[in-house]
What we know:
By secondary structure, the chain is an all-alpha fold.
Amino acid sequence: MPRVIKHPEIRREELLDISARLFAERGYERTTVEDVIRQAGLSKGAFYYYYPSKDALLEALAIRIADAALARLEPVLEAPGLTAVERLNSFLVQGRDTGDAATALVTFESVFRPDNIVLYHRLHAAVTAVMLPPLTRIVEQGVAEGSMHSNHPRTTAELVLLLGATTHDAVAGLLAARSPGERSAAIAAFESRLVEQGIAVDRILGLPDGTVHFTEPGFGEALFASRSTE
Length: 230
């Protein structure tokens, strides 16, 4: 059969579609580059032209998910009449949507393994790059209103996003839970950390404690509802 020539961006998206499906079905660790190549009908050389490694595939997938999340958040970012605090909390509420949690947990679970900590921070940096501009605009609005304090809104927004990386151990502990008791304790630890993270952001932005809501009752349970215990 004649070789099908496709635009590079179309081929990249196809490879991401295939990888997303395989990662969700088998998990990242149990999916090989050969699996992706076989499904795509490409040579190994052609695959590496688009993505230099399986890690690069996962990073590109994380960026695509972040871009899609940002598109869903656009109404909150553009809604007229919201204060910066209202916009920030609405932004966070939308970000807590757990609709795709089961797929995301299977896809990205491996990055919470101790030997994959470098990959975890690489993915976090990639997602941060997507979310930094809109969060910077929110902080700038807060400074203009006088509700938030920052000498450099972009740096402040970056610090807020960097706090997200500190949840690594709490999430890893929950993913490792094997009994109902361990799971309950891990969820409590995860939610407690998010509460403290919200207070830390309050203080970074010069807001009263409890203003920024990084979690809500039942969020941890809903997020990890797909996790079964042995």
